[in-house]
Amino acid sequence: MCVKAAFLSLLVFSFLLTGCGSRQFSQGSYDDISEDRLLDDKFNESDMRQIADTMIKSLTESLVIREAKTPPIVLVTLVKNRSQEHIDMKSMTDKIKVALIKSGRFKFTEKENREEMAGETEYQEQSGYVDPATARKKGRQIGAQYFLTGEITDRVQEVGSKKYVYYKCTFNLVNIQSGILEWADEKEIRKYYTKKSVGF
Fold first, then answer.
1. What φ, ψ does residue 129 adopt, rounded to 5°?
2. Most buried in the list 1, 30, 111, 153, measured by CB within 10 Å?
3. What is the tens place of the pLDDT at every residue in 131-144?
4. pTM, whole model, 2 decimals?
5. Is 25 left (phi over 0), alpha (psi -120 to 50) or beta?
6. What are the tens digits of pLDDT across the range 93-146?
7. Going by C-beta distance under 8 Å and a sequence separation of 6 or more, which residues neighbour residue 82?
8. At a CB cut-off of 8 Å and minimum separation 6, what does 151 contact?
9. Residues 6+ apart with CB under 8 A from 70
10. In the chain, what are the domain boundaries?
């Protein structure tokens, strides 16, 4: 009898351990990326999308772009993270750059690949392996007319079980020749959370 009771106790204990352990996600489905999902209190893809959509619309409708006779050549710098969170600013910067390219209203120079482009140009000109008629020449790159810069800041307020998270993202378009700020805009996002009591 004691053996049977001990066995049952062991089964119950094992069941409790299994129930309290981590669960494996074994079944899933595709989600609508346009829908907002606030699974935690961190900066997420919905915030990034809202910021990008606002800035792209504002910039493409700005006076400096509407009056441009040809698509302006822009150098996009990495958006600066002034917030308390770790945010993938490369993804933010790329999202805005890709959307602006798709609009057909801008042309871009690439800063990240300058060393590679310089090396390739030097190879084509000096290695002797490339037909001079097709080799790219130094001094033929088109200079950017504008810098597109941006930064994101945040502020967090917690009172009791309530928490407010506020983000502000600011972008600037600077004329490289004159140093004049030709366009600027900002997007504000505020999210509200409540803490749930944990029951035992």
1. -95, -10
2. 153
3. 999 999 888 888 99
4. 0.74
5. beta
6. 998 889 898 988 999 988 888 889 889 999 999 999 999 999 998 888 889 999
7. 151, 152, 153, 154
8. 79, 80, 81, 82, 169, 170
9. none
10. 43-110+141-194
